[in-house]
Amino acid sequence: MTQDAIERAWDSVVGTARRTVTDGLVVGTSGNVSARVGELVLVTPSGVPYDRLTPGDVVAVDLDGTQVRGRLAPTSELPMHLEIYRRTTARAVVHTHAVHATAVSTLVTELPLIHYMAAALGGPVRVAPYALYGTGELAAHMLGALDGRTGCLLRNHGTVTYGDSLDQAYDRTSQLEWMCRVWLTASSVPGLTPSLLSAAELDEAAEKLRGYGRPR
Ligand SMILES: [Zn+2]
To answer: What architecture (CATH level 2) is domain 3-210?
Structure first.
């Protein structure tokens, strides 16, 4: 892997991490972002404000979690990131403590089908059972909730999404947070219950999304 490719990827990791703060998906240094470059995983460090990260702060680990670059310690949520890279074709992972998504994680075991954009995450979004942050147990719960999906909620904690690129993983986080906000908003109207989509309606939307952008 060339130095150049690593520097460019680090730049995108830091840029995406800063976006999670400016877009209000995390507060301070909570949440974390990673990208896979060959057999390396570049990941945001633990406890350093993203606006202070420089090109020289590259933190890289191999798929076993052994640090191979950098002096700053990798995020404490490294086990979740690594599990996704080991088990899927992900090139990027975004973890946040977005307000509406975290609120929903405390109320249900699956985000009700309030909008067809759930299809963009592979189907109804599950909530992984609670486990202490940074543990292999939490990473295992997350993997279960991600089965057939590219995103999930973590009970009393936040969101995890992955994608083929940092932009795609980030967009999935934004869509997930937005859907949670819609569901919370609709369910907060006294005396009324939001209508939900059926599995068949979601399948139909998934089919159409798959054809999105193709010439007709
Ligand atoms: Zn977290």
So the answer is: 3-Layer(aba) Sandwich (3.40)
Q: Give the domain ranges of the chain.
A: 3-210
Residue 211 has what pLDDT?
84
Structure confidence by residue, pLDDT tens digits, 55-84: 999 999 999 999 999 999 999 999 999 999
Quote the ligand 1 centre to 145 CA distance (angstroms). 16
Predicted confidence at residue 213, as pLDDT, reads: 56
Length of the chain counted residue by residue: 216
Question: What is the tally of helices (H) and strands (E) in the chain?
Answer: 6, 8
Ligand 1 centroid, distance to 95 Cα (angstroms): 7
Listed as ranges, residues in the chain with pLDDT below 70 are: 1, 212-216
Report the pLDDT value the prediction gives residue 72, as an integer from 0 to 100.
95
* 66: exposed, middle or buried (Cβ count in 10 Å: 0-12, 13-18, 19+): exposed
- pLDDT score recorded for residue 30: 86
Q: Does residue 180 contact residue 101 with C-beta atoms inside 8 Å?
A: yes
Catalytic positions: 77
Cβ partners under 8 Å of residue 169, min gap 6: 16, 90, 92, 93, 94, 161, 162, 163
Interhelix angle 3-22/166-187, rounded to 10 degrees, is 20
Distance 185 CA to ligand 1 centre (A): 24
